[in-house]
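cron nightly-structures :: item 1 of 1
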Amino acid sequence: MRRHLAASVCCGVVITGAAIAAAVVLAHVTAGFITDPASRNVAHWAESLWLLLGLWVLRAAGQWVQARLSQRGATATISDLNRQVLSTVAALPPRRLAEVRDEAALLTTRGLDGLRPYFTRYIPAVVLAGILSPAAVIVMACYDLQSAIIVVIALPLIPVFMILIGLVTADRSAASLNAMSTLQSRLLDLVAGIPTLRALGRADGPAYRITELSAAHRRSAMSTLRIAFLSSLVLELLATLGVALVAVSVGLRLVYGEMELANALTALLLAPEVFWPLRRVGVEFHAAQDGKTAAAKAAALLDELPRPQAGVATVTAAGAPIRLDGLTLTGRDGAAPDGLSAEIAPGEITVLTGPNGAGKSTTLQMILGLAPPTSGRVLIDDVDVVDLEPHDWWAQVAWLTQRPVLIPGTVRENLNLFGPLVDLDAACRAAGFDDVLATLPDGYDTPLGRAGTGLSLGQRQRLGLARVLGSSASVLLLDEPTSHLDAALESRVLAAIVARARAGATVVLVGHRAEVVAVGDRIVHVGGAALARH
């Protein structure tokens, strides 16, 4: 920002000097051409005309350089803000991330892009208003004090009306951004829930609500535009009246012979230069207001969110026990888990069981270090997980969520999403994904995602299982790995999980089904404080 403002000020000084000098030269050339018949030839004024052309070129070059520098400054600043928001939000615990996801998505995809008019048009206009307008008034006073007094009287009316209009526009811009945020949140939720809605025959249900939200956003945007157009009309009217008053005063005094033509033309040419920057500020204010509102929201979000401090310690997970020491994570529904203590030994299967909402999935997230506990510790080889260097620790862990991620790409790219698998075919057989491969037109090279073939929830789970079972990770964290599988596939997958545990891996399962609990060497019951009260 400092470099951007310094460059804008330097360009503003060049533009101001060129504009004022061009007005003075043009006024004297025109006056001399009119009052001195002997000088009415191009050769007599060649030097002045070349000077005038040079000043116009210099002004155009200054405006071009200012626009280029403003574009670069805008791009750099928007990118930096986006990076700060994304890096801060992405490092949040999953629960906190879910709360701010929609707001962060709106800011990074659309909101902060509104800062571009602020940097490319509004700031240059403010700089010119601070340099060109006072300088033009001073030069005007040197040639015609009465015209300068008229301009000084009329000039404050423009900022007064800008402030009054700006107070209303700020509220309108905030309302428009809130309406867009609500609309985008609803759309994101709708897109995420389309498979479920379609399965229940309710895919058309949210259409009415989305239409209402779209209409609300349209009304808010049109209200802001009406204010912008009316304010532009007011500013143009004030500027026109100011220049008209100078023209009338100059014209009357010329008629009565009270001033020279060169001085009159100089004052008349400088009057629009006084009002022009302020008119630009008023016009560009509305274009910049949305970006300023988004930037304020981004700053508030960054101030509100904690900045996670990553650890630097490293451990070797292979053969190391994991100890849960009084783990508690307090949320709006109470503590879940609440004071959980357990020993997770390598070479064994530890099953976390308990009622829904007790904190089983949250326990896996705390083992990963994604969700820092309110109290208690997760110790790996006597090192707290919050002190570990994240990427070093995650490289030794394979994690299966309840809904595995599917990215746009081929099946092979999705299987190798978290690193190359040791044996691709063996991993697919162990997870039962080989049956799915047989139905795909291009096998491993079949495209998946928005533009390709989709997978059902059960097929997606098998793909996620293949990622985990085919990895060389020493710690396997599996969140209900067989919830969408039939009995035959469940037996095959559980056998593969038992084999990984017997080979020395540390395996933690979350499960409710009797078949899953039966393979566990240790059964840990997870309970939450809110559940215990019921």
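cron nightly-structures :: done
The first strand starts at residue 322 and ends at 328.
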